[in-house]
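Whiteboard transcription, Tuesday session. T.W. wrote the C-alpha coordinates on the left side:
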Protein backbone atom coordinates (compact mmCIF):
# COMPACT_ATOMS: atom_id res chain seq x y z
CA UNK A 1 0.00 0.00 0.00
CA UNK A 2 2.82 2.42 0.86
CA UNK A 3 4.48 1.74 -2.50
CA UNK A 4 1.31 2.79 -4.35
CA UNK A 5 1.35 6.19 -2.61
CA UNK A 6 5.06 6.77 -3.22
CA UNK A 7 4.87 6.26 -6.99
CA UNK A 8 2.73 9.38 -7.70
CA UNK A 9 4.91 11.40 -5.33
CA UNK A 10 8.05 10.24 -7.16
CA UNK A 11 6.52 11.27 -10.49
CA UNK A 12 5.55 14.66 -9.11
CA UNK A 13 9.06 15.22 -7.74
CA UNK A 14 10.59 14.28 -11.09
CA UNK A 15 8.33 16.80 -12.80
CA UNK A 16 9.25 19.55 -10.36
CA UNK A 17 12.98 18.85 -10.69
CA UNK A 18 12.78 18.76 -14.48
CA UNK A 19 10.40 21.70 -14.77
CA UNK A 20 12.77 23.79 -16.88
CA UNK A 21 11.58 21.98 -19.99
CA UNK A 22 8.01 21.34 -18.90
CA UNK A 23 6.48 24.18 -20.86
CA UNK A 24 8.10 22.83 -24.03
CA UNK A 25 7.17 19.21 -23.24
CA UNK A 26 3.50 19.82 -22.42
CA UNK A 27 2.88 22.77 -24.74
CA UNK A 28 4.94 22.35 -27.93
CA UNK A 29 2.79 25.02 -29.64
CA UNK A 30 4.61 27.59 -27.49
CA UNK A 31 7.86 26.93 -29.35
CA UNK A 32 6.45 28.33 -32.61
CA UNK A 33 8.79 30.87 -34.26
CA UNK A 34 8.20 33.59 -36.81
CA UNK A 35 10.54 35.47 -39.13
CA UNK A 36 12.35 36.95 -36.12
CA UNK A 37 13.42 33.45 -35.04
CA UNK A 38 12.18 34.11 -31.49
CA UNK A 39 9.72 31.62 -29.97
CA UNK A 40 6.69 32.47 -27.86
CA UNK A 41 8.50 31.15 -24.76
CA UNK A 42 11.64 33.20 -25.47
CA UNK A 43 9.55 36.29 -26.22
CA UNK A 44 7.51 36.01 -23.03
CA UNK A 45 10.68 35.56 -20.97
CA UNK A 46 12.25 38.61 -22.64
CA UNK A 47 9.02 40.57 -22.08
CA UNK A 48 9.02 39.81 -18.35
CA UNK A 49 12.63 40.97 -18.01
CA UNK A 50 12.14 44.15 -20.06
CA UNK A 51 8.91 44.99 -18.26
CA UNK A 52 10.69 44.98 -14.91
CA UNK A 53 13.59 47.03 -16.29
CA UNK A 54 11.21 49.66 -17.70
CA UNK A 55 8.79 50.00 -14.80
CA UNK A 56 5.86 48.24 -16.51
CA UNK A 57 4.89 51.45 -18.35
CA UNK A 58 4.46 51.37 -22.11
CA UNK A 59 2.19 52.10 -25.06
CA UNK A 60 1.01 49.74 -27.76
CA UNK A 61 -1.50 49.66 -30.59
CA UNK A 62 -3.51 46.74 -31.92
CA UNK A 63 -4.71 46.99 -35.48
CA UNK A 64 -7.38 45.25 -37.54
CA UNK A 65 -7.10 45.88 -41.27
CA UNK A 66 -9.11 44.50 -44.15
CA UNK A 67 -7.56 43.69 -47.53
CA UNK A 68 -9.52 46.75 -48.74
CA UNK A 69 -7.44 49.05 -46.53
CA UNK A 70 -10.24 49.77 -44.08
CA UNK A 71 -9.93 48.93 -40.41
CA UNK A 72 -9.31 50.23 -36.94
CA UNK A 73 -6.57 50.81 -34.42
CA UNK A 74 -6.78 50.77 -30.62
CA UNK A 75 -3.96 52.48 -28.72
CA UNK A 76 -3.37 51.53 -25.07
CA UNK A 77 -1.31 53.48 -22.58
CA UNK A 78 -0.16 51.42 -19.60
CA UNK A 79 1.35 52.95 -16.47
CA UNK A 80 2.72 50.75 -13.70
CA UNK A 81 0.89 47.72 -15.09
CA UNK A 82 -2.55 49.36 -15.45
CA UNK A 83 -4.33 50.53 -18.60
CA UNK A 84 -4.70 54.26 -18.04
CA UNK A 85 -5.79 55.39 -21.51
CA UNK A 86 -7.45 53.79 -24.56
CA UNK A 87 -7.93 55.52 -27.89
CA UNK A 88 -9.92 54.05 -30.78
CA UNK A 89 -9.41 55.16 -34.39
CA UNK A 90 -10.98 54.12 -37.65
CA UNK A 91 -8.62 53.66 -40.59
CA UNK A 92 -9.76 54.28 -44.14
CA UNK A 93 -7.86 54.02 -47.41
CA UNK A 94 -9.10 56.28 -50.17
CA UNK A 95 -9.55 53.97 -53.20
CA UNK A 96 -8.85 56.82 -55.63
CA UNK A 97 -5.46 57.94 -54.35
CA UNK A 98 -4.45 55.20 -51.86
CA UNK A 99 -3.96 57.67 -49.03
CA UNK A 100 -4.71 56.35 -45.55
CA UNK A 101 -6.85 58.49 -43.31
CA UNK A 102 -7.42 58.01 -39.59
CA UNK A 103 -10.28 59.38 -37.55
CA UNK A 104 -10.43 59.26 -33.76
CA UNK A 105 -13.72 57.80 -32.58
CA UNK A 106 -13.07 58.13 -28.84
CA UNK A 107 -10.39 58.45 -26.21
CA UNK A 108 -10.91 57.17 -22.66
CA UNK A 109 -8.76 57.72 -19.60
CA UNK A 110 -8.78 56.80 -15.93
CA UNK A 111 -12.04 55.25 -14.77
CA UNK A 112 -13.57 55.72 -18.25
CA UNK A 113 -11.24 53.11 -19.77
CA UNK A 114 -13.34 50.23 -21.08
CA UNK A 115 -16.69 52.03 -21.18
CA UNK A 116 -16.93 52.01 -24.99
CA UNK A 117 -17.72 48.75 -26.76
CA UNK A 118 -15.72 49.40 -29.95
CA UNK A 119 -12.03 48.62 -30.14
CA UNK A 120 -9.72 46.15 -28.48
CA UNK A 121 -10.35 45.33 -24.85
CA UNK A 122 -8.22 47.37 -22.43
CA UNK A 123 -5.62 44.72 -21.62
CA UNK A 124 -1.96 44.68 -20.69
CA UNK A 125 0.55 42.86 -22.85
CA UNK A 126 0.79 40.25 -20.07
CA UNK A 127 -2.88 39.43 -20.67
CA UNK A 128 -2.32 39.38 -24.44
CA UNK A 129 0.50 36.83 -24.07
CA UNK A 130 -1.92 34.61 -22.14
CA UNK A 131 -4.65 35.01 -24.79
CA UNK A 132 -2.10 34.26 -27.51
CA UNK A 133 -1.05 31.00 -25.83
CA UNK A 134 -4.50 29.83 -24.78
CA UNK A 135 -6.64 30.85 -27.77
CA UNK A 136 -4.54 31.32 -30.90
CA UNK A 137 -1.46 29.08 -30.76
CA UNK A 138 -3.51 26.03 -29.77
CA UNK A 139 -5.70 25.74 -32.88
CA UNK A 140 -5.55 22.66 -35.09
CA UNK A 141 -2.46 22.91 -37.31
CA UNK A 142 -3.99 20.61 -39.94
CA UNK A 143 -6.71 23.17 -40.67
CA UNK A 144 -4.96 26.45 -39.81
CA UNK A 145 -1.74 28.33 -40.45
CA UNK A 146 -0.43 29.57 -37.12
CA UNK A 147 1.51 32.83 -36.87
CA UNK A 148 3.70 34.24 -34.11
CA UNK A 149 6.35 36.91 -34.45
CA UNK A 150 8.16 39.58 -32.48
CA UNK A 151 9.57 43.05 -32.96
CA UNK A 152 13.29 43.86 -32.75
CA UNK A 153 13.05 43.93 -28.93
CA UNK A 154 11.71 40.32 -28.96
CA UNK A 155 8.27 41.51 -27.82
CA UNK A 156 5.27 39.82 -29.43
CA UNK A 157 3.87 41.77 -32.36
CA UNK A 158 1.84 39.06 -34.11
CA UNK A 159 -0.09 36.07 -32.79
CA UNK A 160 -2.93 34.29 -34.51
CA UNK A 161 -4.06 31.96 -37.22
CA UNK A 162 -5.68 31.75 -40.65
CA UNK A 163 -7.87 28.80 -41.68
CA UNK A 164 -6.26 26.99 -44.60
CA UNK A 165 -8.10 27.79 -47.83
CA UNK A 166 -9.60 31.07 -46.60
CA UNK A 167 -9.20 33.90 -49.13
CA UNK A 168 -9.85 37.32 -47.53
CA UNK A 169 -9.85 38.81 -44.04
CA UNK A 170 -9.42 35.46 -42.32
CA UNK A 171 -6.79 36.27 -39.70
CA UNK A 172 -7.92 35.75 -36.12
CA UNK A 173 -5.56 37.08 -33.50
CA UNK A 174 -3.42 40.02 -32.48
CA UNK A 175 -1.54 42.38 -34.78
CA UNK A 176 0.50 45.11 -33.13
CA UNK A 177 1.22 48.23 -35.16
CA UNK A 178 3.11 50.11 -32.45
CA UNK A 179 5.01 49.55 -29.22
CA UNK A 180 7.10 51.95 -27.09
CA UNK A 181 8.37 52.06 -23.52
CA UNK A 182 7.45 55.15 -21.50
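and on the right, the sequence the group agreed on:
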Amino acid sequence: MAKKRLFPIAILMALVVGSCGLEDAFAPHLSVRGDSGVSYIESKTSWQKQKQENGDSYEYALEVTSFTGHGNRTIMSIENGKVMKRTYLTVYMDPDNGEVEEQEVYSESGLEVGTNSEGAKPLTIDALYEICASEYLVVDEENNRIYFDTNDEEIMDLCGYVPIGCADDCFTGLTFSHFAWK
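Someone added at the bottom: Confidence is low (pLDDT under 50) at residues 6-26.
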